[in-house]
Amino acid sequence: MLFRRRLEELRSAEEKTLNQIKDSPEGSLRVANNDGFVRYYHVTQKNGKNGKYIRNESRDLACALAQKDYNTRLLRSIQKEKTAIMSFLNNYPGQSPEDVYSDLAPARKMLVSAAFMEGKDLAEKWLSQSFEANPSFPEEKVFATKRGEFVRSKSEAMIADAYFDMGIPYKYDYPVEVEPGRYRYVDFAVLDVRNGKVFYHEHLGRVDDPDYLRKNMRKIKEYQRIKIFSGKNLMLTLETEEFPLDMSLFRQNVAELFGKA
User: Contact at 8 Å (CB) between 103 and 149?
Assistant: First the structure.
């Protein structure tokens, strides 16, 4: 549930903020603005309410005191929100709107269009929707994936296995209608179960081949005409014979993009 995730975030932030306050210097910061000149003062019981002027060479002290003030205010806000969420959860009914669909029998789920769904149910329903993969050159699909399908290259197999290992739903060789009745086939369609959005992933494995690159640039142009853009809902991975795909870096990027980090 969203509120429980938020509560965990707040607890983690609370602990971090408390430690930062504990390590902060004594006292507080006073800021004076005289005729456009900003001056910082270190206020302690010893220095009095006006404080001791902080010289430029001691600017780190001013930063630490300003951070302490921010952290103190932040801590109050975190604790207020945490208290409110805990109060809400203590009075929350046993069944959430997402649970209504989750609790249905499989035969009923097939008939229902759900307004609220848990990520696992969303993934299951999306993966169950059939599609017609690219019918061209099926003999090229010779590399097996962990999920048991066959793809066209070792790199595509490694990409598919990375999605599978991270529990990210994907479809391979997925049809995208670029104009009425005409389709292009994207290497991977990938579902973000947090929000139900579908991302597309093209792996360009021979960008050092001019003909191959030209063909795929035309394909990407067609995607752009139907509002599929790199950096928005299209991910591109590239490799050449000299520079193969870095799977470690790919996994890191995917983990960040899909909240698996």
Answer: no
- List the CATH code of the domain at 130-257: 3.40.1350
The model carries a pTM of 0.68
| Rg, the chain, Cα only | 27
> Residue ranges of the domains in the chain?
2-90, 130-257
Rounded Cα–Cα distance for residues 158 and 21 (Å): 45
Buried b (16+ CB within 10 A) or exposed e, 232-247: eebbebebeeeeebee
For the chain, the maximum distance between any two Cα atoms, rounded to a whole number of angstroms, is 83
- Cβ neighbors of 53 (< 8 A, separation 6 or more) are 39, 40, 41
User: Residue 220: helix, strand or coil by DSSP?
Assistant: helix
At 129-170, the pLDDT tens digits run: 999 999 888 899 999 999 999 999 999 999 999 999 999 999
Residue 163 near residue 149 (C-beta atoms within 8 A) = no
